[in-house]
């Protein structure tokens, strides 16, 4: 019998959503047909859908140390040298929400790429058992993750992206990835972390949590968090903010009153329109401020 997976702060936030009416959700078959994962629970009927007009979109094949990593990209059509923005996914794989976010970034002028860095574990969008999913994603070594992101940057450059204007945006576990990559990459100009956990449970594959990496941050990061997140406490966010300030690192935080974990995820019951829309505006301003977006 396998051991119970260790619940990280982000997963606790996902599995204890704020109460919400169950009306207004797609049937399971409709959600699957639309390209959404079922692992996160029922999918809202009024999801945000971003069209591909003015964009070039498609599947990526990214060369990594041990083969090819799949991914999804969207970029403005006919634009030379667009800035590159990595999209760091939640734990659910590259499903329709992550693809739509990638298209939203492309509409802002970015060559946005969402690498499927869990591909060695299988197609996470097809896994509906949360404990199994958690066990798989918790088995991803940070060293491998950071290498995969570096490979994605190299791929984007080979496709005509301007990696001198490199950003990263991530959600949930991808929010943690933003902090980790900001401590790793010397090329990164700015990052935006939506509810990325500052602290990790003990895991030999994750040598340092974002909190422990506070002295090593190399790029300015904006952290967007929900005050009602049941997994990531306001106290832990404030402690992280203090650690970054003590190390003279450039970071800002915004905590949305009453917002749960996953407030930007418009396909889930956790979605909070006002916080999500403001967070997206804050993200744009941050990426513009640090020269990623024009």
Question: Could you describe the 3D structure shown?
Answer:
- The protein is an alpha/beta fold.
- The chain has eight helices and eight strands; from the N terminus they run ααβββαβααβαββαβα.
- The chain has helices spanning 9-15, 28-33, 96-107, 130-138, 142-158, 173-184, 234-246, 273-289; strands at 55-64, 67-76, 83-88, 111-115, 162-171, 188-194, 221-226, 251-256.
- It has an eight-stranded mixed β-sheet with strand order 1-2-4-3-5-6-7-8, sandwiched between helices.
- Strand 5 (162-171), helix 6 and strand 6 form a beta-alpha-beta unit.
- The longest helix has 17 residues, at 142-158.
- The radius of gyration is 18 Å and the shape is globular.
- The mean pLDDT is 94.
- This is Carboxymethylenebutenolidase.
- It comes from Bradyrhizobium ivorense.
- Pfam families: DLH.
- Keywords: Hydrolase.
